[in-house]
Design a protein that fits this description.
The strands form four sheets. This protein has a three-stranded antiparallel β-sheet with strand order 5-8-9, with helices on one face. It has a two-stranded antiparallel sheet with strand order 1-4. The protein is globular. It is of the alpha+beta class.
Length: 179
């Protein structure tokens, strides 16, 4: 195992996107947290549940939550193309974060490469100590922040709301409809 300059073992998180594991010989086999009886959902609130065949709208849920403040969204609103790439969702059989105030901010059906339809979920929870854990639940969220043709001011405002809360600023500005 490689070591840092101070002698401590370095930690490596790798994500192999196909069946071959490029670093198995050097660092050991890549495994999924859930295969170690530690589902990622217990930490982040949702977990990977599929590859999105074609971009789908993000379907807003809990529109009265502070994350959506200033965005102008209502429950059931559809934000085009945000659910794309990979998606996360709730797995009813897996452990969830405990002793937290949590909310599901979207529930978006999508056609999965693995077959059938699945449900994407954007999730947030706050711990009693004030920590915030936010999971967009889709790789398409980042494209809605700044990629030409994908940008959406509602996603930008929601992201700013989360970041403002994390750093201790609570401000809500009206959403701009220009993109």
């Amino acid at each position: 195992m490689p070591h840092a300059a101070d002698g401590r073992p370095e930690r490596l998180v790798a994500c192999a996107k196909d069946w071959s594991d490029p670093s198995e010989v050097v660092t050991g086999a890549t495994v999924r947290w859930r295969d170690l009886d530690r589902p990622e959902q217990a930490l982040i609130g949702v977990q990977y549940n599929g590859i999105v065949l074609t971009p789908q709208p993000l379907v807003v849920r809990s529109a009265d939550h502070w994350v959506w403040a200033g965005t102008g969204v209502a429950d059931g609103d559809r934000i085009p193309g945000v659910v794309a790439g990979e998606a996360d969702g709730l797995d009813r059989a897996s452990e969830r974060p405990t002793q937290v105030d949590d909310v599901l901010l979207s529930a978006s059906p999508y056609p999965a490469q693995q077959g059938g339809r699945r449900l994407q979920g954007t999730h947030l929870y706050e711990t009693p100590g004030g920590a915030i854990v936010f999971a967009t639940g889709t790789l398409g969220w980042t494209m809605a922040l700044n990629r030409r043709g994908h940008r959406d001011p509602r996603i930008e405002r929601a992201t700013a709301n989360v970041l403002d809360r994390i750093v201790g600023r609570d401000r809500v500005a009206p959403v701009s409809r220009e993109s």
